[in-house]
Specification:
about 30% helix; elongated; 10 strands
C-alpha cells in the first residue's frame, strides 16, 4: 500500500498543469490516440512509450507540458477571425519542418466550460490551414539561465541520506533493495562515484524543468544517474537543486519519470537514461 501511495504522490508532483485539457477538447480516447499516433509518425523518431505501452504516454505528457509553458510565454497564435488557434509543439519532421498543434473552435453544445477549442490535428507550414495565421508561433523556451543546465563542479553536494531513503523507500524496493542499512551504503557510494564522473563529463547531468505546485515557482533541476547495483546500468536518478553556495539532493526518481521530465526540455541523449 505504501508503494501505491508514494507513486501517486510522485505523479501529482511530476505532472503537467493540464491547461491544455482545460482550454481544449482533444477528442475521445480513440480520436486522441489516432492524433498522437499521427504525430509520432510524422515527427523525428524517438521513444514515446514506456516498456509495455503502445498509447504514447510520454508524447501526451510532452504536449501537455509544452502547452503549459507556451501559455505562460504567450506564444499561442489565433487567427484574426478567431476561428483557429495553434502552437508550436517543438517537434520537427524528418525533413526539419516545424510541427504545429492546430485547433478550431469547439462548436459542441455540451462542451465543458472553458474548452473553447478542439484539437483538429497537427500541421506544418506548408499546410493551407496555417496560411490564416499572421505569424508562426515560436517554440517553448526553458533556457532562462544557461549556467543552470551545466553541473558546477566547484559546488559541493549536500544530501540528507536518511531523509532521501525514508521518503523514497518504495523506489528502492522496486529495484530489489529492501535493507535500509545496505541502501544507505550503496547510495553513498553511488553518489560519490557519480560526482567524480560528472566533474569529468558534465553531459551526464540532465536538466529537468520543475514547477513547485505549492508556490508556483519554476526552476531547472539536474538529474544524476545512480548506479547502485551495476556499474553499467543506472537504477534510479537523483534530483539535485542548485542553491547559492551548493547543490542539495532533493529526491529520487524512477528512470521513467526522469525521462519524461527531461524530455520536457530536450530529448535525452545519454546512455544512462534509457527506458
Amino acid at each position: 500500500m505504501k508503494k501505491e501511495i508514494s507513486m501517486m504522490e510522485e505523479a501529482l508532483v511530476y505532472q503537467p498543469e493540464y491547461n491544455l485539457l482545460r482550454d481544449a477538447y482533444l477528442g475521445n480516447k480513440e480520436m486522441l490516440q489516432s492524433k498522437l499516433n499521427y504525430l509520432a509518425n510524422i515527427a523525428q523518431e524517438e521513444q514515446w512509450d514506456y516498456h509495455g505501452t503502445t498509447d504514447k504516454p510520454i508524447l501526451y505528457n510532452y504536449l501537455c507540458y509544452t502547452y503549459d509553458r507556451i501559455k505562460t510565454e504567450n506564444k499561442i497564435e489565433v487567427t484574426d477571425d478567431g476561428s483557429a488557434m495553434c502552437f508550436n509543439t517543438g517537434l520537427l519532421t524528418e525533413h526539419g519542418a516545424d510541427i504545429y498543434a492546430y485547433f478550431v473552435k469547439n462548436e459542441n453544445q455540451n462542451k465543458k466550460s472553458g474548452q473553447d477549442w478542439f484539437l483538429y490535428g497537427f500541421k506544418q507550414r506548408a499546410n493551407v490551414e496555417m496560411r490564416a495565421f499572421r505569424k508562426y508561433p515560436d517554440i517553448a523556451d526553458y533556457f532562462t539561465t544557461p549556467a543552470d543546465f551545466i553541473y558546477d563542479k566547484s559546488l559541493e553536494l549536500s544530501i540528507n541520506y536518511e531523509h532521501i531513503i525514508n521518503d523514497n523507500y518504495d523506489r528502492f524496493t522496486s529495484i530489489g533493495l529492501t535493507d535500509k542499512y545496505m541502501i544507505n551504503g550503496l547510495l553513498e557510494n553511488a553518489v560519490k562515484r557519480i560526482i567524480e564522473k560528472v566533474k569529468r563529463n558534465y553531459k551526464l547531468a540532465i536538466p529537468q524543468y520543475y514547477t513547485d505546485k505549492n508556490t508556483g515557482e519554476s526552476k531547472i533541476q539536474l538529474l544524476l544517474p545512480l548506479f547502485l547495483q551495476c556499474k553499467d546500468a543506472a537504477d534510479l536518478a537523483l534530483v539535485v537543486d542548485k542553491c547559492e553556495f551548493n547543490y542539495v539532493g532533493k529526491t529520487i526518481l524512477t528512470l521513467e519519470w526522469a525521462y519524461v521530465n527531461s524530455r520536457r526540455i530536450v530529448r535525452p541523449d545519454v546512455d544512462w537514461l534509457k527506458i
